[in-house]
Design brief:
371 residues; 25% helix; L-amino peptidase D-ALA esterase/amidase; alpha+beta; 6-stranded mixed sheet; 24% strand; homotetramer
Chain lengths: 371, 371, 371, 371
């Protein structure tokens, strides 16, 4: 059951038909979940901006770094040229270089790229090492190719799938989440879609309800309880990093609005504002990154074109898109939590949020499912 | 009545004794409220890091830009050198250059600065032009000097005072707010103080309660209502910019933790996460800036010293400070709203949030004053 | 006599007809030189991008910071919105806030701006305090208005005029310089113009000839001579900051190529490469800034437009513009030195480079005036 | 024969004993040159900051991006935390992800890192695809391990070795170069060392002598000749990218001065000023990056330390280090050109600069070997 079904519907704008990043026409998402024995629980999620020649028919793109403790690939070229020339992948921290190599190979192997000698794969990661035997480092290349092959439009699987297989949020099972917003026609009618790989912590709040504190599991809990002289709660973390809210969050934004890299970067910054509303304060160890791109055909560019003619939204017209990003990010993160399923390895088991308890807590605050 | 008195006490850490930026020892704040006839309603607020020679005994400092639609003075040198050499002032948009000139003059006139030929005043602003006859541009230099002279430790006046005299938040009267957090001893025992000049909009939420929607006044309201086919609410804005959440928010952070500019900048980024929790998505026209400095004597530096020996917190030790910044910023912004008093000019009158209604709304969600 | 006349013609591209920033059609430059008694020697230089309504018919623009020790006004909004809404002014360090205030007033006073309540003046400065009695702080507002009124196309006065009145370069008199490049038609035929306010130091080289060392005046000279055990030269500096190459350099670039802020910022970075070729290594105390804008009608934008349609050069087409920026900046800086005239105040007299000696030194290396 | 032997000794400071990055005590460099059949000519160069536990005894570090067209790994974490936790590798563009993976594995495999689950390899690249059959993508992991194992102090091999095996500069064979400067005792006596992987173009100048033009091979030559109506020269390029100066330049700086990330980043920016003096204007396709670190024991930090006590040079004391960086970078780049040896593959042969011709050209301008 997605967040919206229990009344977590942040903001003022309405979602698109799938309430997913794929509501932005042309965007496809593919997952490949990797399981090995009782130790490896990881995966790959691919986001493909459009169905054409990504290398030659480039989408403008930008990166916003909320907190840069992470290994994100493709950073400087994405920023310098303001564009994507590959799909975006999400995976596990220690998988990232193999994933980048595989994505490069995937692009180089396309017949139309037979003469390409430079490619800039963009790959993000979060550290699923609490559950996943990340140091085992099984090859991830095959999973990359399958995630790319799996990519589809329409509904997007959420929770403990793909790159969200082994992730943890606020001490509960996290994963992939997605959401979208469609602006009213009077604000342009554009769609904004967000997908997240949630693997972070903090003091969980949902629609402002302090769920983490109410359930007895939140960052700095031990220190706070010790300082208050109260007996330690039962819900604590087993891990000092988690105790401080560590982890990471990868966020990818797509829009069909005609926006170039400068304003895409500004959209990226607003995703962190959605992240904040879930109770993150971006701990030191968190790698919080936002990649944003526009699929509008009116802003595509070819590397060979000396001159392109683009449409571009005026700066004033961006505010509604900013609001949409904040809303959709917050909701995607709730989905990542609420759609997650338990995952066990020999390192332990991580359960999802107790949904019934959450529903009760929300209802007590007047937040309930729409009729 | 401050926010905390009606149950708005964000986060897990406790405030300092004044719940104000002045809980960071040595920091002083001065306001000067400027009123002229029935049109000018503006002012100046000064934040002074310590009582010594600010030019020679410099504090490390940093700037985080949430959204750069603003005229902030002193940007590049603050960043390049990672330090403050003057107090920080807040004022109105069209006052800023005169305020910068007056602050430069104030510094140059000090006997110990008789040979100084370069000074970098740091002055922020928000646009109080909805209420204030900002184009009248009465001289602001005298107010600058009085704000500096007024600066004091202890309790800090909030609401429609100083640089908050004419500001508006979410369509209600805004102003100055302040808050602090003191970390548990096990996390270092450091204090973080925040002061804000709130003049922005969005979809107001308090502790997650959608107060703006419940009271019928929020950004994009007309477009949302039109799209939903509902009759327009009564609470709307008179101003297209406000309708989109425009405005600005200046935030100043002080801490006694030994932190240099790199980590101070990271603290600044977390203030925007607190801002986000009040319902801002940083509209295009918003100038959202955070200036952070450390008062720790163990990080002071002299411009004449070839070598200094500093203490510096490790990166991992920053997470609790990040959390404290997010909490204190959110609370300071609630105070800015709740402590504001009505202000009228010939351009109209802006009332504060109806506190009783807010209290009722919060109580309905289980948020109530501490006993 | 300009640099080109003695063989200093850096690079491979040809200059425009005036070899000045005004070769970019529509750009005008105005100087106002300020002299008071035997102590004040400063001024203002205005660069006006086009003859229309600058506030509503905005030019895309960008800022590159080479070294941020300076007080530049308008930084964050220029970057956030990627555009200029006022002329650019250059002046003296302690003049800058008054100049910003005067430029704001100039814009607000225009009839078409009667309802404007926010304006972002962009003003740069260098510290002419070695010659100029900068602490005297005579009002600069009148000079601002005259510089704006003086602005004209065509030939641009160089040397000890306007904002270059009191500046010093490498221990010799500096000032204003300008140059341009016109790309071959096969590279687009675009024009790049540069104007500089030179007030910096280092180890002067001209076309690679170590003029500073040959004339016995260069940064770190005393330390180098002491270390080498040679007797100190006669040419040294009277000032510890100059001895380390301190000072600043403001650079403004105009182009008629259709380029938006992202690529304008990249052009700005190449101006520092031209600066480097004159012997600067951007000392700590140097404020080295580059502001770049495009005058192409195909990239103008109105603040009221929801959508604009722009042309934009492809990234690959930028390389020739980068080369042009580097060449024109280097030449503009030579002009600033070679066109300067002596300036005296009661603080002393600063002479220009001994042109005849320079010519001889250059000729000895095979660099001579074109026939 | 190194550059200095033919009179190319840029600047005012003296080199260290090896005139190499290894003059910074503790720094080691290792090369592994990779040759396969008649097509693969690439390699790896490793720079190791010190001989201890790099993961726990971290060096402060920074990145400056001159032009971000490149795939550099480790960008955001290096910047966020201001430190290195691995050696730095240089390699070929399409090798970089495998090299990153191998470097991660190398670090994870160390016994002391048995519990490490996150590592941030920093790997740079330039595109040697003109000579090297870069699309063949033979595994590079073994070469990474050998380069790390080969690392040594003392003399550093230059030219067509390691990561410089297949690189091209200005249309001639490029490669690895290195140089150093030791400041006079009166300026602190610190050492700055630079190593470069040169693979870029432009309008080659050496000590300002326009060697590229004199030898008839420079960027934009065809366009310039066509525009001038002169018959095309014989020296042109076979490649449109090279014709525009494309390529890349990786620069690594080490110093024993106690400098933290903020000032290390400023040092990095000055390396681009040295690059500029060789005739680069950083073409669109160039990836020009500078990584700088300090080996001073007084600035080391452990990831586990809550608090560290550091020495830090004052900002004013940085100017001499900036000058040293600019000088050493320029010289290292000359070495990269002059020490290169011819490399042939079935894609063709690239010859080094004709050294005798260069010597003659320099001598004609009065630049000659020291006696």
């Amino acid at each position: 059951q997605r967040a919206r079904a229990i009344g977590l519907a942040p903001g003022v704008f309405a979602p698109g038909p799938n309430n997913a990043i794929t509501d932005v026409a042309g965007v496809r998402v593919g997952h490949e979940t990797v399981t090995l024995g009782d130790s490896v629980r990881t995966g790959v999620t691919a986001i493909i901006p459009h169905g054409g020649d990504l290398y030659r028919d480039r989408v403008p793109a930008a990166l916003h770094v909320g907190n840069g403790f992470g290994k994100l690939l493709g950073v400087t070229q994405l920023r310098e040229l303001g564009e994507l020339e590959t799909p975006v992948l999400l995976t596990c921290t220690l998988c990232i270089w193999q994933a980048g190599d595989a994505l490069a190979q995937y692009m180089l192997a396309k017949p139309e790229n037979a003469n390409v000698r430079s490619i800039n794969p963009v790959v993000g990661e979060t550290n699923d090492g609490q559950l996943n035997a990340t140091r085992a480092r099984p090859g991830i290349a095959a999973a990359v190719n399958r995630a790319l092959a799996n990519a589809d439009s329409g509904r997007v699987a959420e929770g403990s799938v793909g790159a969200g297989h082994g992730t943890v949020m606020f001490g509960w099972k996290g994963g992939i989440g997605t959401s979208s917003r469609k602006l009213p026609a009077s604000l342009g009618g554009y769609t904004v879609g967000v997908i997240v790989q949630g693997n972070y912590g903090g003091v969980l709040q949902m629609a402002g309800v302090p769920v983490g504190q109410l359930l007895g599991r939140y960052a700095f809990q031990r220190d706070v309880e010790r300082a208050a002289g109260t007996p330690p709660g039962a819900g604590g973390f087993g891990d000092a990093g988690a105790e401080q809210g560590d982890g990471s969050c990868m966020i990818v934004i797509a829009t069909d609005a005609p926006v170039l890299s400068r304003n895409l970067e500004r959209m990226g910054a607003r995703a962190v504002m959605g992240l904040a509303r879930t109770g993150s304060s971006a701990s030191n160890g968190s790698g919080d990154y936002v990649i944003a791109f526009s699929t509008s055909p009116r802003v595509r560019r070819s590397p060979d074109a000396t001159l392109s003619t683009n449409d571009e939204l005026g700066n004033e017209a961006m505010s509604a898109l900013f609001q949409a990003v904040t809303e959709a990010t917050e909701e995607a993160l709730y989905d990542a939590l609420l759609m997650a399923t338990p995952v066990s390895t020999r390192a332990g088991r991580v359960n999802p949020l107790p949904r019934d308890s959450v529903r009760v807590l929300l209802q007590a605050r007047g937040i309930r499912a729409p009729r």
